[in-house]
Amino acid sequence: MRLPLRRAGDYPVAIVSIAAALGRDGLVASAKVAVGSVEPAARRWRQLEADLIGRSLDSGWAASRAESYSEDFRGRDGVEVPGWYRVKVLPILVRRAVDAIREQH
To answer: Dihedrals φ, ψ of 25, to 5°?
Structure first.
């Protein structure tokens, strides 16, 4: 999920990518979460990955966990948006990404 800055074309304010494999029981068997454009370099969100495993895909729960863990990020300031805003939108993007995965299954 990308949150583009409209006035700057397709420049992303923040990006959250989630890959999840579900087991036969419908629970998350493995998960990978990456965050880009928030800090100077993209990185994995391992704490959120660990929490997703063994649970059903619930976008509200995932967004809540993302909000509680978002203090792990130090958003980079830019001319287009301040760093705090990049961090603040992460739970919204996590919610959207989980919803998109659920629609595929």
So the answer is: -80, 0
φ, ψ dihedrals at 19, nearest 5°: -120, 130
* Model confidence, pTM: 0.92
For residue 97 the two structure tokens come to: 């990404």
**Contact of 56 with 66, CB cutoff 8 Å:** no
User: Based on C-alpha coordinates, what's the Rg of the chain?
Assistant: 14
Handedness of CA 68, 71, 73, 76 (dihedral sign): positive
> Per the structure block, which two tokens stand in for 13?
């304010």
pLDDT in tens, 72-94: 999 999 888 999 999 999 999 99
Domains, the chain, with CATH or none: 2-104 (3.30.390.50)
pLDDT exceeds 90 at position 2: no
Q: For residue 9, with 0-12 CB atoms within 10 Å meaning exposed, 13-18 middle and 19 or more buried, which class applies?
A: exposed
CB atoms under 10 Å from CB of 38, counted, come to: 25
